[in-house]
Amino acid sequence: MRKRLRNAAVVGLALVLTAAGVTAATVIADDGSPDAERPAAERPNIVYIQVDDMSADLLSYMTEAAQLRQQGTTMANYVFADSLCCSSRASGLTGRMPHNTGVLTNTSQFGDGGLGAFLDDEDRTYATALRKSGYRTGKMGKYLNEYRPEGADPAWDYDYPADYVPPGWNEWHVAGKGGYGQMNYPMTEAVDGNKTRRHYQDTYLTDLLSDKAVAFLNRSVNDHADQPFFLEVSPFAPHSAVAPNAKLPFVPAPRDRANPDAGFAGDCGPVDCNDVKAPRDGSFDRTVADGPQWLRESALTADEKTAIDRNHRLRVQMMQSLNDMIKRLRAHLTKLGVADNTYVVFGSDNGFHLGEHRLLQGKGTPYDHDARVPILVAGPGVRAGATRRELVQNTDMYATFLSLAGVTPGASDGRSMAQLWRGETDGWARDAAFLEHTSHAATARDPDAVAGLGNAQPGSYKAIRTTDELYVEYATGEVEYHDLAADPHQLTNTAAELPEDRRAALHRTLTALSTCGRPDKPDCWTAGQIG
C-alpha cells in the first residue's frame, strides 16, 4: 500500500497575532505552550543561506565570506551528522540525528531516505515552530531529495500532490532535480497560499533565487512590518550538474564561466582564473597509511588531476554567483533598514572532496574535507572577527534559530549555538560530535550516484570527532583513529597504537551516540560526553 501524505493544512496555519494589529507577539514553544511575550520589533530576523556540496577551501574565493568573517563569527568546528545532502538537511530542519529522523540516504528506494522518509516529521521543523510563533517564513531553492514540483513519481511508494508545499512556509520557491543543472528547471511557487508551477528555461537558478529572496524581503518589510521574518535560501550551487548530457560537470553563471580547459577567462573572485588549481597541500593524492580497505592506494593519474583542476575551477566560478547573492541580500537588508536586527548565517549541507585521499569527486567520508565546513554568522550581538572552536553540529541549527526567535525548542538532539556567537561559553562542554553514514548500492534515483562520486566509497560507518581526534568504526569491522594534533589531514591510522582505555572510552561514547535521543536512551548531549 502506498504511503499517503496526510492533510497538512491545519499544521501549516500561522498564529500571526501581530498581523492583526497586536503589538506584542506571543512566542509559542514548539510543543504549543506559551514561552514569553516580546514586541515583534524586538524579535530578530534571520536569513540562512545554505549552499550544496561546498568544501571549506572554496570560502577563500568569496569576498563576501571575508566580510562575514570580519564582521561576524566563524564556527570552525561545524561537523555534519552525515556528509550527505538529504540526511544532513533533515537533521538541520529538525535538530535530530539521522537515526532519529529515519533519513539515512538520498532516496526512498531502500526505505531509509529521501522525502518519503521525512514526511511524518515535516510538522516539527524550525519552519513550523517559527511560523507558529509569528514569523513570516520563506524557503527557496533546494528542499530534500525526491521533491518534485510535478508531484511524486508514480513508481515511488509514497504520494504527495503536484505543487506540494510542506507545512511551515509562507513563501515557497523550490525546484526539483532539474535545479542541479542551473538552467531548464520547473519550480513550485507559493506566496501566502497562492500557488503556481512555472518552468524556467534560460534563467540561471542562483540568480533567480536572489531575485526571489529580494522580493520576499520587500514583501516582509513593506507588507508585513509587524512580523519578523525567517528566510532560507538554498541554492543548488556548487553541486554538480547531475544530468548525464550536461555540457559542463559543474555549471557557473554565464557571466562567470569560461572554457574550463583553455584560457580560463572568467570570474574566480579575488584571484586570476589562470592560477586556479585544486589545492595540492594536505591530503591531496595521498592515501591513509594502514587505512581501511575501501580507500584507493594507487596515485591519481595525470588525466585525473587535469579533470580535478577543471572541476575545481568550475566550482570556484560557481561560488561567484553565490558571492553576488550574499552581497545583494546584505545590501538590500541595509536599504530596507533592517540589517541591524537581522542575523545572516552562511553554510553548507556537507563538504566535498576533489583529489583528497586520492578520491576523485564526492562526499560521505568521515574525513574533514567532507564532514567539517565552517559556518559564518553576522548579526546583533555576534562577536566581530571571532573564530570559535567548540564542537557544533548541524543538529544544533534547529535549537539555534528558535532560541534567537525567543521560542522554546521542542525535544531535539542539539543545542543552541547563539551563546557561542555572543562569546559566552558557560555550560557548553560537548566532548564529541557524532557522524553516521549509511551506504547502499548506486541508484539512478540518487543525484550523487548519477554525478559519479568517485572511485571509492566508504560504505557504512559510525564515527565521533572530538576537537583533536577522529575515531571511526566501519560496518566491515575496521577501525580508524587519527590524532588530529599530530595528523591534521588524517593520513595515518593509529588505531592499533591507541591505548586500550582510550579506545574503550571512545567505543562506549560512539555506542551511546548511536541510539541517543530515542525513548529510554540518553539525550545526545549526555551521550556525547566521553567518560
Helix content estimate: 10-25%
Taken in chain order, the helices and strands follow as: EEEHEEHHHEEEEHEHEHEEEHHEHEEEHH
DSSP strand tally: 18
Poorly predicted runs of 5 or more residues: 4-37
| Largest sheet, strands/sense/barrel | 10 strands, mixed
Gist of the model:
The chain is of the alpha/beta class and 531 residues long.
Relevant terms:
4-stranded antiparallel sheet, 17% strand, 10-stranded mixed sheet, globular, alpha/beta, 531 residues
What's the layout of helices and strands?
Layout: E1 24-28, E2 34-39, E3 45-51, H1 63-71, E4 73-75, E5 78-79, H2 85-94, H3 98-101, H4 126-132, E6 136-141, E7 171-175, E8 185-191, E9 194-200, H5 205-223, E10 229-234, H6 302-336, E11 342-348, H7 368-371, E12 375-378, E13 386-388, E14 392-393, H8 397-404, H9 418-421, E15 433-437, H10 447-451, E16 461-465, E17 469-474, E18 479-483, H11 500-514, H12 524-527
Parallel strand pairs: 3-10, 3-11, 4-13, 5-14, 6-7, 6-10
Antiparallel strand pairs: 1-2, 4-12, 7-8, 8-9, 11-12, 15-16, 16-17, 17-18
Helix pairs in contact: 5-6
Task: Describe what this molecule looks like in 3D.
The chain has 531 residues and is α/β, with parallel strands linked by helices. Helix content is 23%, strand content 17%. It has helices at residues 63-71, 85-94, 98-101, 126-132, 205-223, 302-336, 368-371, 397-404, 418-421, 447-451, 500-514, 524-527; strands at 24-28, 34-39, 45-51, 73-75, 78-79, 136-141, 171-175, 185-191, 194-200, 229-234, 342-348, 375-378, 386-388, 392-393, 433-437, 461-465, 469-474, 479-483. The protein has a ten-stranded mixed β-sheet with strand order 9-8-7-6-10-3-11-12-4-13, with helices on both faces. A hairpin with a 4-residue loop joins strand 17 (469-474) and strand 18. Helix 5 runs parallel beside helix 6 (302-336). The longest helix has 35 residues, at 302-336. Mean pLDDT is 90; it is low at 4-37.
